[in-house]
Amino acid sequence: MIERRYARVVSGGILLLLMLFPLTGSAQQPFFRFQPLKHSALATDPVMIRPDDDGRMWVGTKQGLHRLEGNSFRKIPVVGQEESVVSAIYQTRDGELWVGYLDGSVRIMKGDRLHKWEPEEGLPVKAITGFAEDDLGQLWISTYGEGLYCLAKNGRLYNLGPDDGPLQHDIYALCSGPNGEVWAGTDAGISVCTFRRGNKKIRRFNDLPDEIVLSLLADDHNVWIGTHEGGLVRYDTEQKIFNGMDSSGIFGAIVQLVNGVGDEQFALNQAGELFRVTAGKIHRVHPRKAQETRLDHLGTDKEGNLWLLDAKSGLYSASLRFDFMDMDFGQPQTVLKIVEGATWVGTENGLIRKGPESENYQTVSGSAGTNVLCIYALSEKDGSERILVGTFGQGLLVCQAENCRRIGEAEGLPNTNILSIDGGRGDTIWMATLGGVLALDLASLEETKPLVRKLKGVAEGFIYQLHCAPDDILWVATDGDGLLRYDESGVKRISLDENFLEDRQLPSTVFSVVPARGGGIWVNSQEKGILKFDQGKLKQLNVGDYLVESGQEISGLLEAPSGELIVVHPQGVSLFSSSDSTWLTYGAQSGFTTGGSAFNAIGENEDGEIWLVAGNQLVHYRSDSGLRSKPVTRLTSVLASGLEIEANDTTLAYDQNYLVFSYEGNWLTDQEAVSYRYWLKGHDQNWITSADDRVNYSNLSPGKYAFWLESGLNGQFSGRPDLTYEFSIASPWWMRWWALLGFVTLFGLILNLLTYHRRNRRARLLLLEKERVQSELAALKAQVNPHFLFNSFSTLIATIERSPDNAIAYVEQLSAFFRKVLSMRQTDLLPLVDELELAQNYFYLLRKRFGEKLRLEVDCPDHGGLLPPMSLQILVENAVKHNMVSRRHPMIIEITRKGNVLLVRNPVHPKRKPEISTGFGLSAIRRRYQLLGIREPRVEESGGYFCVHLPIL
């Protein structure tokens, strides 16, 4: 059952351990991608390309400067007169782009336009051939016809020519040397120039194989010199010697040199042929689809790409991270190059070997028909080569030179399916098999039956890979038991208390385990994908949905010397940078064939060189920590209400609140993979992801803001902004503190003034109203007193006629009553008890006239409260005036208190001949209530009674 399961794994392209060492030879080639020129670039005759440090590709043409944008080119507008033929493009250390022309003019890129440079000393009239900077930051300009120019630190432009030393007028090439000097290539060799404090210094090299120097290139320790007929020369600036390169006549005139990845260089000759210089050897490079074309220019970018220009067809680009080697002897599965230079390749059909002096591979004797899965080199004291080869079902091969002997079941090998081999510092070799872990004693290797034992504590199942760490800890990747650790204390599985995975679940199937450079190990698992185990903790690595769906699809895992994690999968190769948590993926466009591969299809030699398997190709990976791992993000423009603002203009007016941010993320490897995310702090709640290269914000409120922007690849972002643009929108003047304070102060003054005038006006109105009320009350009182007096006189006359004696008593009582009335003439309100007493005194006067026919009944236990004076007297008087008072119809007047209301009621017996009435009584009572601001009395007549309800205050 185990064998059938492993067979399924193999058929799906799983299970492979590679220990790959470099294969040098002409067969190694980068994969070139063709990019046709569109738009007007062909019509304008491109003459040069220049990738800059900001991830932009510039193309110089006969009609000016263009920039590559996707598959087309955009003409860069110029300020002033039109451009001529571009002859040099250069980016300074501070990022400024300078462009030289055949007519001697120079322009500088500012914003999105080219501005002509016009120094006070004037420009040359001869062709500009190059730019360079020295260690002081001074800019040097070479010409063909006027020597050198130096833009000194004081801002002045100085000319250097033959009068200043051994320097020709015609300069072909210019570069900055490793020591900060400027090197110039001429028809008479090389001149090394300096300009310090106004002093010009020039020295010349005379021992070149060819005096005509057409191209120059500097790296950290060397200056590479391309000559007209003498091939390629290297000058070691530390040892100060020239070393000629054996070009075997393949070079011709070398017109351009560029640095590649690591310590390699590329050269272009006058015939348009491309050559590669690696480790002192020169190889011809044949770009696919371009073997019959003539190359015109080349350049390299910070992403590790080599760019080639064919002015008639287009651009070619190749990632120099990878070299591909086609294998015509079967599917490669493992490769090894040992000290003596022999190369061993393991395939499905045997072990292939190429000796150090041979260019052909031959099948190693004794290995034909063997499915080779892994190769391990033994370190021999005498330097001889001896390797151990693990196979599928055919045991262990011990190979030396061109012969192998087999160790199988008959020789005491418990399991013949060997998937991985590794050794520690001791004399034990560890083997991962389909039946557990085996330990081989090296001291017994030459015996007929070597000493082989099984590692106890490990189940007899699939062991995909093992790794013996420098501290002699053995890590074992198993199918079912997860990750195992073996040391002096025995075998131990990584337990839950040692990890911090969110779901607290450990993977049970582990396919590979490899060392991490900074300590710990990398683990590839079925359930959790890629994890890192360090200091007793397991941390899962987010590989992204674009990469793989599960760990089973990852066929190779290795951390390169430069620190990036290399992941091989069906879509190609992905690189994870731990420093900024970014992923780079190289797929079909970079030369990788899609489809399944084998597990652990990657390996490294002692020199740090890495090889991996891609289809039927062996791929050499070049590790370089100086290469860029993510797009370069630039904020190209900021528009505020339609006007472009400068980068240092961070305070905007209140009406500049409609902002448009334009930006770009430059990634020459694959611009279509770039996407963006932004966050306007102070406005947005979180990151916003978009494929657009601009964003609009309208009607922003006054306040402080920060625009965060990040470029990512394939939708993956590091989580940190690449750039931040902080700005603020000012409040309008009427919302600033001093204006608000002024408004509040002014409003307070106006409010106080209005309140003052309103209070004065109200006081005047109240005074006038009071005077009017008092006047009206006085007039009303003046009317009440005569009215009462006249009615009393009428009663007196009637009394005198009937009873003179009673008339005298009546006059005396009337006199006392009238004196009391006069004493109240200045009173607006009278206590209820006094008002009742006044009504009863008046009733006494009426009683003298009507006798027992008139009665007054008072039911008012509570005498508290106030009434307008003589209110009750008027009502009593009206009851007698308007009704009959007789024995048949006696008049009974009732005064009753109900709460805060005094009810005055009398029966209604109208007189047959009514007396003339002025209507003064009731109207006078109502008016007095109105003037006093009191609720008016209510008058009603029902059930034979006339009732008046007087409110009591």
Question: Layout of SSEs?
Answer:
Layout: H1 2-11, E1 32-36, E2 46-51, E3 57-61, E4 64-69, E5 72-75, E6 78-79, E7 86-91, E8 97-101, E9 106-110, E10 113-116, E11 127-133, E12 139-144, E13 148-151, E14 157-160, E15 171-176, E16 182-186, E17 189-196, E18 199-205, E19 213-218, E20 222-227, E21 232-236, E22 241-244, E23 254-259, E24 265-269, E25 274-278, E26 281-285, E27 297-300, E28 305-310, E29 314-319, E30 322-326, E31 332-337, E32 343-347, E33 350-354, E34 362-363, E35 372-377, E36 387-391, E37 396-400, E38 403-407, E39 418-423, E40 428-433, E41 436-441, E42 452-454, E43 463-468, E44 474-478, E45 483-487, E46 490-493, E47 510-515, E48 521-525, E49 529-534, E50 537-540, E51 556-559, E52 565-569, E53 572-577, E54 582-586, E55 602-604, E56 610-614, E57 617-621, E58 632-640, E59 643-644, E60 651-652, E61 659-666, E62 674-681, E63 688-690, E64 694-697, E65 703-713, E66 723-729, H2 737-802, H3 804-823, E67 830-831, H4 832-850, E68 854-859, E69 866-867, H5 871-882, E70 891-898, E71 901-907, H6 920-931, E72 938-942, E73 945-951
Parallel strand pairs: 6-10, 60-66, 68-70
Antiparallel strand pairs: 1-29, 2-3, 3-4, 4-5, 7-8, 8-9, 9-10, 11-12, 12-13, 13-14, 15-16, 16-17, 17-18, 19-20, 20-21, 21-22, 23-24, 24-25, 25-26, 27-28, 28-29, 30-57, 31-32, 32-33, 33-34, 35-36, 36-37, 37-38, 39-40, 40-41, 41-42, 43-44, 44-45, 45-46, 47-48, 48-49, 49-50, 51-52, 52-53, 53-54, ...
